[in-house]
Amino acid sequence: MQSNKEDAFNVMVLTSAIILIIIVSSIAALSLLTHNLYLDSYFALEAFFDAQNTAASSSLAAIAFAESPTQWIPILIIVVIDNLSRILIVSFIIAAVIDFLSYANVEQMVNDFRAKRMKDHVIICGYNDLASRLMARLREVRIKYIILDPRKTFEAEFAEKKIVGIVGDFTKEEELKDAGIERASAIVIISENDVDNIVAAMVARRLNPKVKVMIRLADERVRKHVYGIGADMAVIPEYLSGIDMGEFVARSGGA
């Protein structure tokens, strides 16, 4: 997304530069005829941006009619150049707007805006089946949440399901800040990568000492160590599922 923003910005800069070059060139061409830079600048503003400057137009017209016939050709050329320049400027502006809309992910921009306004929400790091079940439960109890996942393939799904989701690396300080870690009430880190989850827990705890940190792990040997880095809860879903299935089997066998 960052690259798209840079491309759109570059298009706007290039368009502005071309407009500036055309305006300066027009003023320079006029000054060769009138030798009045102040008048020429005002006329250029009127010609390019429809600024009402009757005095400048009248003065230029007076110069045109007062000069010898040999001056009519350069005056006509300048007028034609000015009008063509205005057409070019409008064309470049339209192209810049189209490029900006093409490059910019409007839905992602809306999500970023909504994320910056959230408070006392839950940040869910990792978008998977476990996240979907957690989201359903949070909706039931009316708790706001944000999904943070580095995979761009989920952008379309976020938009389709109207999920407040940000595409970003949840192990990075800047991305967590974009998700509002400093204003969040809790962060649930549930990707399938233990290392990423642990790193994210450490960064989140440093950015917000008061936030509740819940982390998903796959390795039982690691679980007892993550509490020392600031995790409030460490869960191994497979371990809990095994307990549930064991209880079911035990009850069935005893029937």
Write up this protein.
The chain has 255 residues and is an alpha/beta fold. It has helices at 2-34, 37-49, 54-66, 72-103, 106-117, 129-140, 155-160, 173-178, 194-207, 220-226, 237-254; strands at 122-125, 145-149, 165-167, 186-189, 212-216, 233-235. The mean pLDDT is 75. The chain is elongated. Helices cover 65% and strands 9% of the residues. The protein has a six-stranded parallel sheet with strand order 3-2-1-4-5-6, with helices on both faces. Helix 2 packs across helix 4 (72-103). Helix 6 links the parallel strand 1 (122-125) and strand 2. It has eleven helices and six strands. It folds into two domains: 2-103; 106-254, NAD(P)-binding Rossmann-like Domain (Rossmann fold, 3-Layer(aba) Sandwich).
Topology of this protein?
Elements: H1 2-34, H2 37-49, H3 54-66, H4 72-103, H5 106-117, E1 122-125, H6 129-140, E2 145-149, H7 155-160, E3 165-167, H8 173-178, E4 186-189, H9 194-207, E5 212-216, H10 220-226, E6 233-235, H11 237-254
Parallel strand pairs: 1-2, 1-4, 2-3, 4-5, 5-6
Helix pairs in contact: 1-2, 1-4, 2-3, 2-4
Residue-averaged pLDDT: 75
Numbering strands along the chain, what is their spatial order in the largest sheet?
3-2-1-4-5-6
**Helical content band:** 55-70%
The CATH architecture term of the largest domain is 3-Layer(aba) Sandwich
Q: What is the approximate shape?
A: elongated
| C-alpha Rg (nearest Å) | 31 Å
**What is the CATH top level name of the largest domain?**
Alpha Beta
Helix and strand composition category: alpha/beta
Number of helices in the DSSP assignment: 11
The counted number of beta strands is: 6
Number of domains: 2
Strand coverage percent: 5-15%
